[in-house]
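Lecture notes, part 5. Sequence design as translation. It can be helpful to think of inverse folding as translation between two languages: the language of shapes and the language of residues. The source text, in C-alpha cells, appears below.
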C-alpha cells in the first residue's frame, strides 16, 4: 500500500527544502536529524504538563489542553519563521514517532498551501535507521589507523592528510573530547549525547567514498562519555596501522602546547587528576596535584606521560591484531607533518 502524499519515508528526505523537528527543545538537544531546525509544537514544560494530565485525567483532557498550546505555538512559528517562504517551499516535519505533534503542524502548513509532509515513524524510525547504519557501514571502508603514544601528533597528522585531500574521520572532533582524563574541550563545550554522537558519525560515514581509504586515529572503545559502535571498533582493531615514533621531548612540547589552557585554573587541574586515584600510588598522585597547583606543567606532564599514558598505550596497542608500519618523525612542526602525510598518501 502506497504512503499518503503527505507522509514520506527516510529515503525521500533530500526532496525537501527544510527539515523541521517539532519535538520539545530538550528532545532536540539530545539528538536530531542532521540539518533540522527546532520549531516545537510543545515546549518542555508544556509537554510535561500534558503528559501528567494524560495520566491523571485521560486522553481527552490532555488533548484539549495540548491543542490550545499546539495551535498557539504553530501560529507563532509561522509568523516568526515562515512569512518569507515562497509558495513552492517544501518543508518536512517530524516528531517522536510521526504522530500528532508533526501531524498537526503538517495540517496547518498544507492548509496554507505549502506542500508539507510528515516523516513516517518520526525520530524513532530515524534512530532505528542510525543503529542499523552503524552496524553496516564500517565494513564498507578501507580503514587506515594512525597510532602512537600521547603527544605523537596523531590528530595533527590527520589534519595534514585532510588538507592534502585524504578522507579523514576525526572521532575526537565528533566526540568533543580527546579521550583521556584531561581530554575535555578547553572552551567548556559539553560532549554530545550518545545518540547525537551516533548521528554525527553516520552522517560522516555516509560521505566517504568506499573506493578510497579512510584515515582515522586509534581510539579506545570510549572517548570520554561516548563510545564507538562495536562494528567500527572491531574494524579499526584489524585495520592496517601507522605507528608514529616521535622523540619524547617533541611529544612533551606538543602536549604542553595543546593542554596549556589547563594551567589557567590550577585547582581545577588538581581536581581532574583525582580521577587517577587507585590507578597511581597515593604519593605519586599527591605530587602531581601539588605540581598542578604550583603551575609546574612541564614536570607534571612529563611524569604523566612516562608513568601513566605511555604504559596505558603499550597495553592497549598490544591488543590490536593489525599490520603495523612505523613512521619516525624527528619533529612535529607543520613541514614535518606535511611531509609525513605526503609519504603516507604515496605509499
Amino acid at each position: 500500500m502506497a504512503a499518503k502524499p503527505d507522509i514520506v519515508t527516510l529515503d525521500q528526505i533530500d526532496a525537501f527544502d527544510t527539515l523541521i523537528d517539532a519535538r520539545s527543545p530538550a528532545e532536540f538537544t539530545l539528538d536530531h536529524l542532521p540539518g533540522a531546525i527546532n520549531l516545537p509544537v510543545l515546549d518542555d514544560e508544556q509537554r510535561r504538563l500534558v503528559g501528567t494530565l494524560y495520566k491523571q485525567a485521560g486522553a481527552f483532557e490532555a488533548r484539549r489542553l495540548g491543542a490550545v498550546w499546539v495551535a498557539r505555538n504553530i501560529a507563532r512559528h509561522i509568523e516568526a519563521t515562515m512569512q518569507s517562504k515562497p509558495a513552492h517551499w517544501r518543508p518536512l516535519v517530524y516528531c517522536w514517532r510521526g504522530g500528532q505533534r508533526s501531524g498537526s503542524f503538517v495540517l496547518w502548513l498544507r492548509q496554507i498551501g505549502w506542500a508539507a509532509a510528515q516523516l513516517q515513524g518520526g525520530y524513532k524510525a530515524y534512530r532505528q535507521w542510525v543503529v542499523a547504519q552503524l552496524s553496516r557501514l564500517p565494513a564498507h571502508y578501507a580503514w587506515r589507523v594512525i597510532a602512537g603514544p600521547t603527544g605523537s601528533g596523531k590528530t595533527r597528522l590527520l589534519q595534514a592528510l585532510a588538507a592534502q585531500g585524504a578522507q579523514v574521520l576525526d572521532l575526537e572532533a565528533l566526540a568533543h573530547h580527546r579521550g583521556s582524563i584531561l581530554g575535555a574541550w578547553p572552551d567548556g563545550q559539553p560532549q554530545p549525547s550518545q545518540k547525537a554522537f551516533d548521528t554525527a558519525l553516520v552522517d560522516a560515514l555516509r560521505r566517504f567514498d568506499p573506493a578510497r581509504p579512510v584515515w582515522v586515529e586509534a581510539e579506545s572503545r570510549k572517548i570520554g562519555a561516548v563510545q564507538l559502535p562495536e562494528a567500527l571498533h572491531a574494524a579499526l582493531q584489524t585495520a592496517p596501522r601507522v605507528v608514529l615514533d616521535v622523540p619524547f621531548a617533541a611529544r612533551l612540547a606538543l602536549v604542553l602546547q595543546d593542554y596549556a589552557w589547563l594551567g589557567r585554573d590550577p585547582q581545577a587541574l588538581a581536581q581532574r587528576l583525582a580521577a587517577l586515584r587507585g590507578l597511581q600510588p597515593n604519593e605519586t598522585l599527591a605530587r602531581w596535584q601539588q605540581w598542578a597547583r604550583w603551575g609546574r606543567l612541564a614536570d607534571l606532564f612529563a611524569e604523566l606521560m612516562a608513568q601513566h599514558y605511555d604504559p596505558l598505550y603499550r597495553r592497549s596497542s598490544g591488543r590490536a591484531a593489525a599490520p603495523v608500519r612505523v613512521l619516525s618523525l624527528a619533529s612535529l612542526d607543520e613541514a614535518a607533518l606535511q611531509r609525513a602525510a605526503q609519504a603516507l598518501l604515496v605509499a
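The translated text above is only one of many valid answers, since several sequences can fold into similar shapes. The two ends are 53 Å apart (CA to CA).
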